[in-house]
Structure formats: C-alpha cells, structure tokens
C-alpha cells in the first residue's frame, strides 16, 4: 500500500480549506487515494461548521492517516494557528501557510507521504511577508538543492486530458521575457519535460511543440528575431539529442483540436501564452504539475478565489483531479526508480 498523499491547506482566507473538505467528502464517489491534510485542524473545523459540511476532522500523524481516512479527514497539525476569515487575506497567515508547506515537503521527502498536493496560496500575502520565491514551484526546487549545489530547474506544467502546456518562463514581468528566453533555458526545459513525460506519464516518445515568442513565430525574422535566433536552435539541439521537438510554431494556431492532436505538450515562452488556452479548455479538470523535482507535486490549476471563499460556491474538481494525478504519477515514479533502488 502506498503512503498517503500530503495535502497543504494553502491560503486560509481562500477556498483551499473548503475544497479540501469537499474533496474528502467526495473520496468514495471520486475513488480518491488516501490523503493527509497538513495544517491547522481548527481552521478546517471552523470552515466545515460555517459551511454546514459534516466532516469529522481528526488530528493525527501522517503515518496514521491511511487507516483513519475512510471515516475522518486526517490532519497532521502544523502547530501554527491560521485565523484569517474567508475572503479577507492578511499577512499574519504567512507563518501557518509556510509551516504547512515545509512540513508537507518533509513528509514526502522522508517517504511518509507518497506525493505533495498543494492548495492555492496567495502570492501577494507571502510576498508582503518577504517570501523570496515567485511561487510554490521555485520554493520546492530550492528545498531540493543539496547543500552547496544549485537547485534543480523546476518546470511548471498545466495538464488536463485535453491539453498539456508548459510556460518556459513563469511568474516574471512580460517585459523581461525576451531577455529570459535563452537557448539554454529552452533546451533544459525540453529535456525535463521529455524525461518526466516518459517516466511519470508513460509516454515512450513524447512529442513537444514549441510556440514562437512573436506573432507568426516571427515571420522569418520580420516580426522579431528571437524565434530564429533562440527557439529554432533550441529545438534543433533537442532533436539532435533524440527528442521529438518541433518549432517555433505560431502560437495562435497551436491550440485548436487538429493542432493539439499533433503533440503531447505545448511549450510556450511565457505564462499567459499557454495558461490561457489550458484554463479556457479545462478550468475545472486542469492540474498544475511541477516537473523536474525528485518527488511528485500537483495542485489545482486555479487560485485562492477570494471572491467566493466561504460562500459554498467553490468547486473541488480541480483539486480532485490533482489528487488523482498525484497518485498516478507517484506510482509511476516509484516503479521507474525501483531498479535504481535495487542496484543501490
Ligand atoms: N497554485 C497556486 O498556489 C495558485 C495561486 N494563485 C493565486 O491566487 C490568487 C488569486 O488569483 P486569481 O487570478 O484571482 O485566480 P483564481 O483562480 O483565484 O480566480 C479566478 C476566478 O475563478 C473563480 N474560481 C477559481 N477557482 C474556483 C473553484 N474551484 N470553483 C469555482 N470558481 C473558482 C474565482 O471565483 C474567480 O472568479 C493570487 O494571489 C494568485 O497568486 C493563482 C493560481 C495558482
Ligand atoms: N499560474 C499558476 C500559479 O500561479 C501556480 O504557481 P505555483 O505556486 O504552483 O508556483
């Protein structure tokens, strides 16, 4: 039996706590693997009471979660109260959010949990509390750096059965994108995507489609130099390394059904270029997956939804999809690493 998934509660004033409660209630109908929430159990009790959700919350260790899961929502207490009211974020929540994340990462890295699933956090709240990372993605990579070594490059993928996309640059101002898109970045991103699609998603020879940066992929240099000077050499290098890569392709015609049938992952040059089509096609089924880490991490594709937090309108589908995908990927990951461990 695989260990449970570790699930953070995210921003206390957002919909994170309530979609965790709703996912637990859907556990049998959705066929969910056991998970252990990591956070403040009182926050979950308060939110359940406010929403009239009948969810017994039990504080326990993550090792006890599996056997308790059928009858109660197991919570590994993080020891820091989270008091913000729904819809009213304030930076006093930052210590609880970060402690929950840190403990959940520890549980996964220690093998007590099989994968990490994170509920949405509010970047602006953490930035005000001096959180030095753009988001979970970069924070998690930093946690994986061995002493004295560079962090692994984390790659963000938004996955659904309809479309998988990767933004090569993530949470950076648009004005900085042309400077940040380099051959090295694209080649490393392509290699990580190809490896994780093979080892974790089970696609033997993944097909990668690179979008151009400029309109019409630069129109042979007339509408911008980056596509010929950066994207094309990166694609050529990946092809030389045996990876099925194509591009630069015009982004505006990359997402209709016939185009989507020609690739497994579309790699875009910036966040909104690929997250807009991904969330438009599959907002409630989309899952945010971090590739390039030594463990599996998934998350719903949406954010904290402060406008509906505490109203009972939150839809837990994306979190449910994230929990299912985490179990699928961590099972594949364990199988791919079994020969490594046997030889060790
Ligand atoms: N993985 C993470 O931690 C993520 C965090 N965020 C953070 O969330 C905060 C708010 O971001 P926004 O751009 O407003 O996006 P958002 O996804 O929170 O909300 C956009 C719209 O979608 C609706 N919505 C979102 N999730 C929903 C759900 N499960 N059920 C029903 N309706 C839902 C909201 O009510 C809102 O109208 C920001 O601080 C952002 O940084 C955003 C995306 C991912
Ligand atoms: N737009 C995706 C997003 O904001 C999630 O970021 P992260 O917290 O998973 O790095």
From TrEMBL:
Q: Which GO terms describe its cellular component?
A: cytoplasm
Q: Which cofactor does it need?
A: Zn(2+); Mg(2+); Co(2+)
The residues that the entry says bind substrate are 136-137, 279, 288, 297
- InterPro entries, A to Z: PdxA, PdxA_fam
Q: How is the cofactor bound?
A: Binds 1 divalent metal cation per subunit. Can use ions such as Zn(2+), Mg(2+) or Co(2+).
Report residues binding a divalent metal cation: 171, 216, 271
Gene Ontology annotations of biological process type: pyridoxal phosphate biosynthetic process; pyridoxine biosynthetic process
The top EC class, named as a word, is oxidoreductase
Q: Does the keyword Lyase apply?
A: no
Pfam families found in the cross-reference section: PdxA (PF04166)
Write the Enzyme Commission number(s) for this entry.
Answer: 1.1.1.262
Q: Which one of the record's GO molecular function terms can you name?
A: magnesium ion binding
Write down the chemical reaction(s) this protein catalyses.
4-(phosphooxy)-L-threonine + NAD(+) = 3-amino-2-oxopropyl phosphate + CO2 + NADH
Task: Cite the annotated pathway.
Answer: Cofactor biosynthesis; pyridoxine 5'-phosphate biosynthesis; pyridoxine 5'-phosphate from D-erythrose 4-phosphate: step 4/5
| Keywords, comma-separated and alphabetical | Cobalt, Cytoplasm, Magnesium, Metal-binding, NAD, NADP, Oxidoreductase, Pyridoxine biosynthesis, Zinc
Report the subcellular localization.
Answer: Cytoplasm
Summarize the protein's role: Catalyzes the NAD(P)-dependent oxidation of 4-(phosphooxy)-L-threonine (HTP) into 2-amino-3-oxo-4-(phosphooxy)butyric acid which spontaneously decarboxylates to form 3-amino-2-oxopropyl phosphate (AHAP).
Question: Its quaternary structure?
Answer: Homodimer.
Q: Kindly give any further remark recorded in the entry.
A: The active site is located at the dimer interface.
Write out the similarity annotation.
Answer: Belongs to the PdxA family.
The molecule here is called 4-hydroxythreonine-4-phosphate dehydrogenase
Species the sequence originates in: Aquabacter spiritensis
Gene of origin? pdxA
